[in-house]
Amino acid sequence: MAVDRRAAAAIIMTAIAMTERRAELDGAASATLVLLCLLWGLQQVAIKVAMTGFSPVLQGGLRSLGALALLWAWAALRGMRLFERDGTLGLGLLAGTLFAGEFLLIYTGLSYTTVSRSILFLYTAPFLVSVGAHLLLPGERMRGVQAAGLACAFVGVAVAFADGLRLPTNREMVGDLMVLAAAVLWAATTLVIKGSKLVRASSTKVLFYQLAVSGAVMPVASLLMGEAGVTAPGPLALACLAFQIVVVAFASYLAWFWLVARYPAARLSAFTFLTPLFGVLSGALLLGERVSASLAAAMLLVCAGIWLVNRRARAAGA
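The chain above was modelled as a monomer; its predicted structure follows.
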């Protein structure tokens, strides 16, 4: 009887989890995604400013450790058990390792290649997520119009950063490959979460795994890489680090992993093409950086791509 009760409970919990998943994005989810992309765009400025007081990889490690402490407090206030045995430990450590590797490659790659080139290679990730979901996740097959929408959004990003592109030097090619590998890890993290028991775990626990592993790995990597570490952090650098900890790594990632568990991967990934465009706008407004005249066209292409990816299919199928 005990086995029967456990089996029945598992069936009920699976049914509940399935009913929470949506085939399409609703208005609230879309608005949340735009806000998240805006925050991630602002993060690009925050990272640049915080580099005046903290080395890049150490900065990433401090961000994860600070957000981990906040997440632990959040879980305690809500009475959530982060260490309860639910069969997700191995998968969680895998997701955390992929997450840590992604940011290590991004920060290291940026020391070899330009920001413009790194953004283009990093934003191959939505394609990888969509193809992986199409091949590996039942119910997330990509339609032709969605593939066209992703391509349209990627072209928009390429248009925005076209001024900074040219044939790479050997050094830049090394950085390009690092950032491309980071894109693969970003996609792999999303697919591991979507295609495993982690999709039924709380978003708090999923994020906990990733912050814990990256918080442990990145400061050690910073030492091994010979980074300067904490140099002379002023109030502005500290404020930018605090923004990354509280707003980005804690609040925005918690919201993102909640969305990943409930909505189709391809539809979510299309919105992330807004992030580099918001980053350009943030750099122009806050740092006085030059904005390309083609930014408006880029924004239109990205928005058109998002619309195509999230367009409702006709009854006969699109």
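Residues 54-310 form one domain.
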